[in-house]
Amino acid sequence: MSGATLCVDAGTTLIKAVVFDAAGRELVIARRTTAILSPRPGWSEQDMAEVRDAVIDSIAEAVAASPVPVERLAITAQGDGAWMIDEHGEPAGNAMLWNDARAHAVIDRWESDGVLEAGFRINGSLGNLGLPHAILAWMLTETPDRLDGVREVVTCGSWLFGALTGARGLHPSEASAPWVDFSTGLVSDELFALYGLTGIRGLIPDVLEPDALTQPLRADIAERVGLPVGLPVTLAPYDVVTTATGGGSVTSGSAFCILGTTLCTGVLIDSADTSGEPGGLTLLGGSGAPIVRAFPTLAGTGVVEWMSGIIGTEDAAALTALAGEGTPGARGVRVLPYFSPAGERAPFLDTDARGVIAGLSFENTRVDLARATVEGLAHVIRDCLEASGDAPSELVLSGGGASSDVWCRTIADVTGVTTVRADGTQVGAKGALLYALVAAGEYDSLAAAAEALVTRSTSFEPDEGLRGLFDDRHADFLDTRSALASRWSGWAREGSR
Length: 497
Fold this sequence. Notes:
Layout: E1 4-10, E2 14-20, E3 26-33, E4 45-46, H1 48-65, E5 70-77, E6 83-86, E7 95-96, H2 104-112, H3 115-123, H4 132-142, E8 150-154, H5 156-165, H6 172-179, E9 180-181, E10 186-187, H7 189-194, E11 214-216, H8 219-225, E12 232-235, H9 239-246, E13 255-259, E14 263-269, E15 281-283, E16 291-296, H10 301-311, H11 316-323, E17 334-336, E18 356-358, H12 366-388, E19 394-398, H13 405-415, E20 418-422, H14 427-439, H15 446-453, E21 456-460, H16 467-495
Parallel strand pairs: 1-5, 5-12, 13-19, 19-20
Antiparallel strand pairs: 1-2, 2-3, 4-7, 6-8, 9-10, 11-12, 13-14, 14-16, 15-16, 17-18, 20-21
Helix pairs in contact: 9-14, 10-11, 10-12, 11-12, 12-13, 14-15
């Protein structure tokens, strides 16, 4: 491998095109921002053409700046949602995103009717507001004309892969939730019937076979970005899986947490188990990778940013730094960080879940609020780890929040698990790199690629002297949540007025 690999990581608001050399080092990073649209409260959409053009522009910038020739492309992107394409391969309106809350009534109905549990027994994933089946069910009831002229419904990665190559189909990770029957690994007609979506089964493309996940770059795109026609383009799994991979979590038993817009905690397993308590997502990684049991919360860095605005720190980084001035336990202040208008989806599902700040008195300061925010999010991570049924010896951290020593150390103390920070700034893109190199035959397996190219930096050992404190605090965290759950629906209704 003499040339470079350019990997696109298309996040919800930030798109990055990263050029890696043969040793997996980041040579160039080109960035573009994209807007989230909210035409009504709780709705979350994006202009698909804007996302596509931002990707193309970022690729062109990275290619122009690369000191070595680019030999291949790879794509990873945000997951879930509904990205609709017309018969010409063009956007059929705005994409509806993973954090969209419009399907509230659909999820509530499916939960009360037992549909969500029945789906989990087949699919291994607990349906939530931002998954395409819920969005499509809402559309069929509320805006059926919106589907006129739609040829297929995909997710962001497959949309971009098709835009660059003309290929049609879903990556296995994208199809996993909610369409795949894990006993067969195929898109399931039984699941469509269960969700009442049999009439639109034809809008969901099939899962791409492994040899179809790499396709030649289209001539018109090649001209725009300054690359050869036919350059190989690999569709990697969506960002949850690739970020785990980029941090070196490639073998069964590995555990990871992405400290991003969503806190996504996950473990790698050899086979799907649909018999336990419904919760989280079960995702196929492909390319011989283990299955990922992921718990992507709706609590994440947005909570830190929101609290930063409330207490008047300069930004999220300043808040986590301020938290470092506090004492463990935040002098009695508690934060239950369920502030998303869509409620929470992992490790429990409640579309009415709402946040709580408790334990305050005149003696508390903004330092205590900052500390309680960081600790509250760490309790969410512990909750997800316990729901996974796994007891890892280490937890690999990545995402923007992982740059904070305070947060990494707090997670170790609250969970009782050693935390390890993934090296490099673009861990999701690094995961896409590994998939592209395995597809190109440069490595025999993801494990071999990770061993050669992935390194870790700082590790944080849990403070055993704080074990009793945080065990008690975690029990209180869960008890408080349980006690408040009966009040959430009333709070949510009042908040929507």
